[in-house]
Design a protein that fits this description.
Elements: H1 2-7, H2 12-34, H3 40-50, H4 55-83, H5 87-107, H6 113-127, H7 137-161, H8 167-189, H9 196-218, H10 231-260, H11 267-278, H12 286-295, H13 304-335, H14 341-347, H15 360-384, H16 389-402, H17 409-434, H18 441-457, H19 462-479, H20 489-513, H21 518-538, H22 545-565, H23 573-593, H24 598-616, H25 628-640, H26 647-665, H27 675-687
Helix pairs in contact: 2-3, 2-7, 2-18, 3-7, 3-19, 4-5, 4-6, 4-7, 5-6, 5-15, 6-16, 8-9, 8-10, 9-10, 9-22, 10-13, 10-14, 10-23, 12-13, 13-26, 15-16, 15-20, 16-20, 17-19, 17-20, 18-19, 21-22, 21-23, 21-24, 22-23, 23-24, 23-26, 24-25, 25-26
């Protein structure tokens, strides 16, 4: 823990954020004391809990916290009065409520999930301390809502007035950087001999960066930046950007396959790729480039497999040009606040929350773990009649919720326990060494600043956020500022033990019920991909193509950080990236199947059923290589398409089938020779 703290190198902006947050916390404390609220420390702690460097992110989180707090308070008023005569029933009801809210929050992967989480553990925060004094329930619930709302208002006011940092410029810088990076990836992808390691690293970084944009865009409605109210167009842009990754993967793969054929990459293709590497959408000429690429389809490649690879490559190159142009036009329109409606409508089918991966099993286990932890702590409280058992149970609910977004929350909970223990020493030092000699609010501010401001800097970095927040919250809550100073060492010690024991119980129960290793989490993500692919092959009513693509790319963004932590499995990336292209090809074959004659349609149905069984049978961390029968089915369909009279339909089918052939089986297709090639071979034999 100390190594993480000392490794932090804060920037001036980080110190400014901490000073602003400290000022907001002091303002909240001053107003709470002036208004004679019951627990002014709650208002002060709330400022640190909702603190965010970006004003829009803070405002949205604050709004969700107010709503969640109000719902939690209402639930407390509904549950406690009728159930307080039967403590076990009250505990069970509150445990089920917290578990249910946490499960729903885990399923909603947007900032809105904060509403559900807060609604859950706010009910615990209000209800458990009032079990022994039910007559004070309404006053306590009202006080909590007032104090939390006051803290939120102070944090929001200071953030928006004093040197505000908006989400909009951050998003703009990230999008500009992403588009520059994708051009660098295109430069690599147009080289059939490009280094595989460099390609994997670039794809991984771009997918991870793309995953961050979804959460940022949601906050735009809560600030006054140039991109305000551009959430939907930005999500459409994100979907278009996501579409570039599998397209560029396909370009590089088809070029590499062509390079392995006897004729290699045709000279006209090499001549076109060189200027295309330098092309940017800002230059325009999208239609002209598409015509030049389409002209390559007529090149004589010598053998049929090379021709099919070339056809597939041309389709991918055209898609690259078209999607790049869509991204540029969307981004220009967003900055001008006039995003093209046709493009927004086209790409928005994959930009909603339905395109996000959801793990219902982990959500359910998170809820069960929280409920069991609450029951365990409260059972000890009831059995021993410990006066501080309500606080311990309350902290168990909080601990079980706030770390639930991690695969394995246990290390973070252990770190929180260590942070709280360290801050408890500071609490004792303040209560019995500093505060007794303080007279006046100004001196209080002066003695708090040297500790709270450095701790606030820890909130600015992901690696130290889990250290700083427990320390700050524990410090503020245990100091329990009132208009007049009073303190009893026994009460302080009991409070420290109650807070620590709540986190310890949450950690133990979570370890038994909920924790996932990195490998287990990877396995679940990969299995979800394979279920989607099997469902796409089985479906008679295909889902939107972009929706499946976006969901699989969203999972890719979740897989990448886990792969970074497990170096021995990084080779998985080469198998995961093309799975989005496999899914799109399956959906394309389903769409085209309706236009085929009965016999080829039945053959295609047999292939799709084989794909369904293959992906349904995948298990473990790496899907097995398909057997030769699947490759032979694809080759047979490709050969049968020679007789397809509709040239456009034949080309579309060939593109999808070649994508499947390369992505699933790799290697060179064993296409039967064409009748013309067979006749030529027979003639040569006769001459010989």
């Amino acid at each position: 823990m100390l190594a993480q703290i000392f490794s932090l190198r804060p920037k001036p902006a980080d110190w400014l954020f901490s000073v602003k947050t400290f000022a907001a916390a002091i303002l909240a404390l001053l107003l709470a004391l002036a208004l004679q609220l019951d627990r002014p420390a709650w208002a002060m702690a709330t400022v640190y809990i909702v603190a965010q460097p970006l004003s829009g992110a803070l405002a949205s989180k604050a709004a969700y916290r107010v709503l969640g707090t109000a719902i939690g308070a209402l639930v407390s008023l509904l549950l406690v009065p009728p159930l307080v005569p039967a403590p076990p029933l009250l505990v069970l009801a509150l445990a089920l409520w917290v578990g249910f809210c946490l499960a729903v929050a885990r399923l909603d992967r947007t900032p809105r999930s904060y509403v559900f989480m807060l609604a859950g553990y706010t009910a615990a925060l209000i209800s458990f301390p009032c079990v022994t004094q039910p007559q004070a329930l309404f006053d306590t619930a009202l006080a909590r809502v007032e104090e939390i709302t006051l803290g939120i208002l102070c944090a929001t006011l200071v953030s928006h007035i004093v040197f505000p940092r908006h989400v909009g410029p951050v998003i703009a810088a990230r999008i500009d950087g992403w588009m520059a990076d994708v051009r660098a990836l295109a430069h690599l992808s147009f080289d059939p001999l490009a280094d595989a390691g460099a390609l994997h690293r670039e794809r991984a970084r771009l997918a991870a960066d793309l995953g961050d944009l979804h959460g940022f865009a949601v906050h735009l409605g809560y600030e006054r930046s140039a991109l305000k109210d551009m959430t939907r167009p930005l999500q459409a842009l994100q979907s278009a950007m996501a579409g570039l990754l599998p397209v560029l993967y396909g370009v590089q793969d088809r070029l590499a396959a062509l390079a392995e054929t006897p004729g290699g990459v045709p000279a006209p293709v090499r001549d076109l790729l060189q200027p295309l590497q330098q092309w940017t959408p800002e230059q325009g000429e999208c239609a002209a480039w598409c015509r030049r690429i389409a002209a390559l389809r007529e090149i004589d490649c010598g053998d049929e497999w090379s021709r099919l690879l070339l056809l597939n490559l041309c389709t991918r190159l055209q898609r690259y040009v078209e999607i790049s142009d869509d991204c540029y036009r969307l981004w220009c329109g967003i900055r001008a606040r006039r995003a093209p409606r046709d493009l927004v409508a086209r790409w928005c089918e994959a930009s909603g929350n339905s395109a996000l991966h959801r793990d219902r099993g982990v959500a359910l286990r998170s809820g069960v773990a929280a409920a069991l932890a609450i029951v365990a702590t409260s059972s000890f409280w009831i059995a021993t009649a410990w006066p501080y058992g309500g606080i311990a149970t309350m902290m168990t609910a909080v601990a079980a919720c706030i770390m639930s977004f991690l695969d394995d929350p246990v290390p973070a909970l252990k770190q929180a326990v260590a942070s709280q223990a360290l801050s408890s020493l500071a609490v004792i030092g303040y209560l019995y060494g500093v505060l007794p000699g303080i007279d006046g609010f100004s001196l209080l501010v002066l003695v708090l600043a040297p500790v709270l401001i450095p701790l606030g800097v820890l909130l600015t970095a992901p690696q130290t956020y889990g250290i700083g927040l427990p320390m700050l919250a524990n410090l503020v809550m245990l100091l329990n500022f009132q208009e007049r100073f009073s303190s009893q060492f026994a009460d302080t010690l009991d409070g420290v033990i109650a807070m620590l024991s709540g986190f310890v119980v949450a950690a133990v129960v979570t370890a038994l019920v909920r924790s996932l290793s990195g490998e287990a989490s990877l396995r679940r993500l990969l299995a979800a991909n394979w279920r989607d692919l099997a469902a796409a092959a089985r479906a008679t009513r295909p889902q939107p193509r972009l929706l499946l693509l976006r969901r699989m790319l969203d999972r890719l963004g979740l897989i990448l950080p886990r792969l970074a932590a497990i170096p021995e499995h990084r080779a998985l990336l080469a198998r995961v990236v093309p799975e989005s292209a496999i899914g799109v090809s399956i959906l394309e074959l389903r769409r085209l199947q309706r236009r085929l004659a009965p016999v080829p349609a039945a053959e295609l149905e047999a292939l799709l059923r084989a794909l369904q069984h293959y992906f349904a049978g995948c298990a473990g961390l790496v899907r097995a290589q398909p057997d030769s029968a699947l490759a032979q089915r694809i080759d047979g369909l490709l050969a049968g398409l020679r007789e397809q009279p509709d040239a456009a339909l034949r080309d579309e089918l060939q593109v999808a089938l070649v994508t499947l052939r390369r992505s699933l089986c790799g290697g060179v297709s064993s296409l039967p020779p064409t009748p013309a090639a067979t006749a030529a071979a027979n003639s040569l034999g006769e001459i010989a």
